[in-house]
Specification:
It contains three helices and six strands. The chain has helices at residues 2-9, 91-95, 104-110; strands at 28-35, 57-59, 68-73, 79-86, 98-102, 117-126. The protein is globular and about 65 Å long.
Length: 131
């Protein structure tokens, strides 16, 4: 019996590889949005590109870089589409339920500059490929 097992294991027949595990984010996220201060303008983001507060970009803790999301200000219904280029939020904002940090330009479109932190809905429009 051992000989039969040993010879069958060496025949080169292997089961097909398991499909890769891909983490799928829910299509809609609910939480708070904040915006990054002027301090980060021009600094290198986690994706390697300089952070430009004048562009429609954002930071998210887990979405792949290059993903595109629509952020809606739940208070006034205004929306903006941004590309994920950085990681965050961290620290106090994250502990208080913030799910996305926006650029100044995106925050202006949502009319949230005065509030600083708003309730938001984040819809994933395009999930970037993970390399």
């Amino acid at each position: 019996m051992l000989v039969a097992l040993a010879t069958s294991a060496c025949t080169g027949h292997r089961p097909p590889p398991a499909p890769p595990v891909v983490a799928v984010a829910p299509p809609v996220l609910e939480g708070d949005a904040t915006y990054l201060s002027h301090y980060f303008h021009g600094r290198t983001s986690a994706s390697g590109v300089p952070f430009d507060e004048r562009k429609l970009v954002a930071a998210h803790r887990t979405l792949p870089f290059g993903s595109v999301v629509r952020v809606t200000n739940v208070k006034n219904g205004r929306s903006v589409t941004v590309r994920i280029v950085d990681r965050g939020p961290y620290g106090k904002n994250y502990r208080e339920g913030t799910i996305i940090d926006l650029s100044y330009a995106a925050a202006r479109r949502l009319r949230m500059i005065r509030d600083g932190q708003i309730p938001a809905r984040v819809e994933i429009l395009r999930l970037a490929e993970v390399n």
